[in-house]
User: Fold these one by one.
Assistant:
Number 1:
Amino acid sequence: MRTLSGVQSSGKLHIGNYYGAIRQFVQLQDESEAYYFIANLHALTTVRDPKLALELTREAAVAYLALGVDPKKAVLFRQSDVREVLELYWILGTVVPHSNLERAHSYKEKVAKGISPDFGLFAYPVLMAADILLYSADAVPVGKDQIQHVEFARDWAVKFNTEYVPGYDPADPDGKERGHTPGILKLPSARIQESTQTVPGVDGKKMSKSYGNTIELFADEKEIKKRIMSIKTDSTPVDAPKPVPDGKPADSSVASEVPLYDLLKLLLPESEFKDVDASWRAGGKGYGDYKKKLLEAYHATFGPARQRHAELVNDPAELERILKDGADRARAEATRLMDKIRRAVGIP
């Protein structure tokens, strides 16, 4: 099985990125043939400073490696290093219905907020579909809010195959029945990690760069402490039992009613959290004590990765070697598929 996923290099990575995606990627590289890319072309929809774009791309790659992605097991590369993705982007776009793009979640959200979207945002799902289809991925690890992108990739792969592959039957996409021809573009499946909760930010909303509520993975120690100590709490007295989350609020942008409690549960080993939970419910400790406990848990969890991160930052030549090797391996796969696609559509 081949899995594929990417991270957009539009900001510093935070613990929500780790628990929501990267931790799973590290596990999957031992279970499948894994392709992971830094989506620096996608990032151009928001990052317009070229120096910052380069910095964030390198930072994302370093973060992947520091957190456990092994370039000997997985193919790690920059999206822009495989130019075939742009060729597939255009060819695929010729069969994409305009109405599909109009109902894309990201586009609709921007329009609803009164933002005038540009072409990059409007056509964003097509490039994402090209990313998925170019490497013939079987599974794409995504959060529930990203399922639509995989569904689009499947739908558009079917449209392309139907248009350009004689004998293709959408009911038999792999051509297993006699007389049917397998499609050129493989239909991927979304892989949902049901057990992964939405990680709350310091304000209780879903941790997100766009909300400015993140706890970064590789910020300096002073900044990490400042962010953790700023986690939103209520005015419950020190001696009183602290409130425990009783369910997700109606506002889907809110990840936690009690973010400090949920972050402790996320970062602490189960045995340690049981003790914290008992004292939380009994009262007698203030929120400041629990924030210090969370800070300790953060460094215990990410300390080794932060050390590895510092080593990689100081060896840019090795980072570039890893990314070039990944791009060469990814391009070998992309070239094979694009040769078939060019023949199918009549491009020499």
Number 2:
Amino acid sequence: MRLGLALGYWGRGPSADHVTLAREAERLGYDSVWTAESWGSDAFTPLTWIAAQTSRIKLGTAVAQMAARSPTTTAMHALTLDHLSGGRMLLGLGLSGPQVVEGWYGRPFPASPLTATREYVDVVRQVLRRAAPVALDGRFHPLPYPGPDGTGLGKALKPITHPLRADLPILLGAEGPKNVAQTTRIADGWLPLYWSPTRPQVYEASLAGLPQGFLVAPMARVKVCDDVAEGLLPVKVMLGFYIGGMGHAARNFHADLMARMGYEEEARRIQRLFLEGRREEAVLAVPDAFADEISLVGPRERIAERLELWRKGPVTDLLALAPDPHTLRVLADLNA
């Protein structure tokens, strides 16, 4: 199982320690470093900054939001950074949800998310292969644009720049069972939002017949500390926000996933409290057991014991949300 460093997205401003952490991760032999975006900092610019100050570590987006860019634009970002970094790019994509897609990006959330994702990946792969002008008779991402409000003058084009790698890896952040199953067919890897090594049955059917070399790369908060409850608090804050605030009461993919993982009653309570403005109560309502099983938190010996569970499943890459160099070093040592 390889290790990656997950840096997420910025909060109120740039994180001063991200480059330092990325360079330390590279020194320790971590395989990859990952950035994200929501509705603030973007995923590609910080990754480019890190690329310029590292030499070996792979560079991933976990995730870049599909609604933020047309698929050809995303492919341009990926092929550009792949060239600049000497072939280190890993393109992780996610669809997000209706609240972000429509509220922030001003686009309709696709009526068929699976079809929209499949078309998006198809276009990105066409750009990277550069075998022919990019064209797709698609429902959501048709090229050239055929709409009645167009000029009709659109022309199928190849990228001017020759991509460094036609097989640049594409990973998808998928949550629903059908979406995960499709990911195993159209992508090179999967970026689970929550992964519990004690509940393999949650994704067992969707992951049946994984292709050889397919990446399974979940994120997990990792923190070496004496007080487990204190170490889990940032996990509970994250879960409270995602389950309560990242979606509508009637449509929240994160809450639905928590429910499928055996915590339906708790997920609905967190949602209700958060939407009522009782955010601190929503965080406290996150079960310690759920936060713990998707994390690696506690003294070194406890993390070492629980790390064995992660190695036994299909996980190929553990992307550690590890905010301090000491934790990075302990995890590298335990995984050696």
Number 3:
Amino acid sequence: MRIGILGLGRIGAFHAETLSGLNAVDSLVLTDPFADAAKSAAERFGGEVVDSPEALFAAGVDGVVVAAATDAHPALIRAGVEAGIPVFCEKPVARTMTEGVEVLKAVAGAGVPIQIGYNRRFDAGFVAARAAVLGGELGKLHTVRSTTLDPAPPPAGYIAASGGIFRDCSVHDFDIIRWVTGREVTEVYAVGGNRGADYIREAGDADTTGALLTLDDGTLAVVSNSRHNARGYDVRMEIHGFTDSIAVGLEDKLPLRSVEPGVTFPAGTPHDFFMDRFTAAYRAELTAFTEVVAGTRTSPCTIEDALEAGWIADACTLSLHEHRPVTIEEVRQA
């Protein structure tokens, strides 16, 4: 099949490399507002360069991957659907939930599949965790702990436009909690602090946060995030039930140092970047998209899924700013 990529920055170029290695993909069509980015990707991974999204949609592509800036996501998703071309779009659907809901309404009933990029759903550990939970191996759940710790904060320009740590970082935890447990979040309480980069505080954001989520069956989920984890990129989940407990991410590249006498775990070089931690998951995610394009599977992460994680992020943002519990229904109806 022939796949188009809109946006050839860091993640777009990474997707181009991944797609170029998939057996299902015969050719790529690339475009970026910065022509040199598209040309560079074409030289490295192969593909035809066109000068606009319109030219890409007219180039006979079977599916499109949207890796452009967030502000461009709504228009590009709609353009793909209007052209009848299956769309893979990196999260988020849009910068705000209002825009995201508008996109959902605009594409509803079109019959064109859309997959949103939440790569943890394709990580082997999280896949195994979901199977264990849904298979009843843990019994009734009581506690979930989910962690995302970045090795260093992104630049000031990114922070200023990101929508805040809950929307650009924690949202991955929110999505994977929903997916692994099969439950919905009903209420949140969030706290945060700033003890690192001044520009994060100046942007009205926090660099380290904690959120307590109540799920619809009474299970408690604790989410921990930080922009400052000098040892590396740390993504983990613990799931505790009345029958058993399991963990995702307890492997030798875990960026955590044990000080227990005689303990050598973890013994490997710590993960230092999200692309390192989730290389296999990204490949599985885009393989799934080729199956969506081929019509052999339905979207494994819909716009509706992405919006649910977004409501949780909005609730946590409001909770942080107002120092109170916030229900999901409150932000959904605002």
Number 4:
Amino acid sequence: MKNKRIVVRAIVAVSVTLAGINCWAQSPKLKMTTDIPKSITAPDKVETSLGTLEYFDGVPRPKTVETVYDYLDRSRAVQVFLNSIPAMSVTTLREGQASVGADTCNKICIWDSLMDSESLLLTGNTSTMYAVGFLDLQKDGPSVIDLPPNMLGILDDMEFHYMTDLGVAGPDKGKGGKFLVLPPGYKGDVPDGYFVVPSKTSGVWVFMRGYLDKNQPLGKAIPAASANIRQNLKVYPFAKKSNPPAMEFINVSGRNMNTILPNDYSFFEKLHALIQTEPESYLGPEAKGMMAAIGIEKGKPFNPDARMKKILTDAAAIGNAGARAISYFPRDPGNLLYGKDSTWVMAYADKDTTFTRNGAYRLDPRVLFHFGYICVSPAMAVTVAGKGSDYGLNMLDSNKQVLDGSKTYKLHLPPNPPAKDFWAVTMYDTQTRSQLQTDQQFPTLGSQDKGIKKNADGSYDIYFAPKAPQGQEGNWLQTIPGKSWWIGLRMYGPLQPWINKTWRPGELELVK
């Protein structure tokens, strides 16, 4: 009986307490009381995607405070991850190049025998000769790129922002010349006789392609392009112009080199390291604030506690999922090459290399590009009939299903593909966005391949399967059971039917 009275008293006490809370929440009518809109108050309990959030008269209870702070830290970290993909991509390019010895401005990676699938590099192609390097303006000061003729290239900064074109699309018009790249905030004298390029960051990626002479067989055109670069390209600090260091060219054809940005906690470690090498003006106040909120600041150590490290690990996983969803299932109409009924997409939404609309960043298109592609230049998005190159991308079959490496697919290219020079289809790995690694050294087929078979009407059928369909060995690219894949269709010297879309490739059809 005594225990029963204790329980009753406890129930009454709780009821009185709750009644007091409810009365307080309802606010009794007093002399100065006015009607308070519900829209500006917090109820005692509210159900959300984070669970039940609880308050005492608008003040979060301890468990709610913990839940909300975890969410804020996680959401800010996810946004930092997604917004920093451009910077991380160019950072890992620098790390990858340094890993094979290209760690100073006079050391250049060159694919002497073109790029095969050994190199992990975002959407590299097998048809042109790449040569890449980096400038360190913090260490070297103003730096010179003495460019040979017959080149095509770009300078991008450590935010992957466009700086200038080199070669045919640049101020030298393909004739070659000396470019002088100035460090952030440079106030010194600027000599005559240079194409002057100021930089906002200390690091600068130097991307170059050597032209392959279309009038020569590849066996002669490839070594000629390499010789032009090796014999004539010079990169050096301006301060050493009277006695520049000897050039070193590192042949990376057939060599393992990883330049792909990480998808895990190390992303944030690398971002912190990058911030330390760049000037205070490198980031705007909003980006700096978001990074500072998760412990990434210039001049301060990055040492998250166990709670924050767990949150950052989770945020990297969420950011990675977001980047892959955006990349393989884009929802911005500007990325859809032929509209929503087709699976063909393009890397630059609406062919805009600034990723802006009405002065605002287009966040998804920016993530899509920098997660899967490199090289930012307006020249890459301008399609001129008979010049340069243009391409379409495809990650899904005609039913918008993920491509399965254990199955057989067919791509039909209608008669007379509109390419003045040549066209090529290249396969990529969905994990690395680099060339798919199979038994085929170059996972590419195109009009330059001698064994490819043309249909009677001038069209082509390309097959993708673990084994070549009988009679289609020359029109076959190998896939891997248990893996997915995707393709890029490049038109070199695209003609008007490609540009105005009166000619368009078929969808990827599952062959049953």
